[in-house]
Amino acid sequence: MRFLSPLLLFVLAPLVRSAELPPAVQEGDKLLLIGSTLIEREQRYGYWETILTKAFPTLTIRNLGWSGDTVLGTARAGFDLSPPTAGRKKLLDLVTAEKPTAIVVCYGGNEAFEGEKGLANFVKEYNALLDELSKTKARITLLTPLLHEKKGVPLPDPTSTNQNILMYCEQIKQIANKRGLRYADLNSLIGEPKGLTDNGVHLTEQGYRQTAGAFMQALGFGKNHDYSETLEPVREAIREKNELYFHRWRPQNETYLFGFRKHEQGRNAKEVAEFDPLVSQAEENIRKLLKK
Questions:
Q1: pLDDT, tens digit (0-9, with 9 covering 90-100), for 112-129
Q2: Residues 76, 188 within the same domain
Q3: Are residues 135 and 220 in the same domain?
Q4: CATH code, domain with 219
Q5: pTM of the model
Q6: Dihedrals phi, psi of 173, to nearest 5 degrees
């Protein structure tokens, strides 16, 4: 019997683990997208979601991204909440209510600005978040934050920031391996973005369109998933659904409806649930368009 060398086994180990992992997404899943700006802005354009929905027509997707967020849920804390844990609790309560079967988590982009000194706390809090998310029994995928684009003056040189992002991505990879989770590495497919961002950090609409195929590859679905113009009606329907759902879970006057000023307008809180049938109707429209 011929044995593989220890070095070859070391090289193949990540490939074997990846092959043994369950799929990031499959038919009939309810998928939650969790993270900061990269995730939140995607709902505005819908290219990544459209490609996923095309591949899995019975998939249900809910975008819970929040710009500026961290693994602590810092950006989600309301005026009447006490950071740093209250924001994450809001996220976890929503996740629990949604009953997901699959979750994509994308953090680390904001935390990387802290550099090496913030790395240990990031790992600790990321694991704490995953401990809570694992209670849902959903399959969890860890998506990397994107590198920054070098746009030239007057914008700063992103070289040192990108080094930090890669350092944080390496820790995310280690977390994924230790937990037996799928690690979705966008940077190995995209590299440093070129002409894809508006400010060196955030993807433009075309940025999301051009990275849709890489997003699918990162999730483990191979090549040939680029966006096609024939999907435009589906994408528009997805954008409509996302806007309705956004108002359902994140109403602009939340403080008046549910927070410390609910004594003023709390009587209107019941109207938020009226978005539910609208979201369901929008989902039905998406599935009809996919059948055409």
A1: 999 999 999 999 999 999
A2: yes
A3: yes
A4: 3.40.50.1110
A5: 0.89
A6: -60, -45
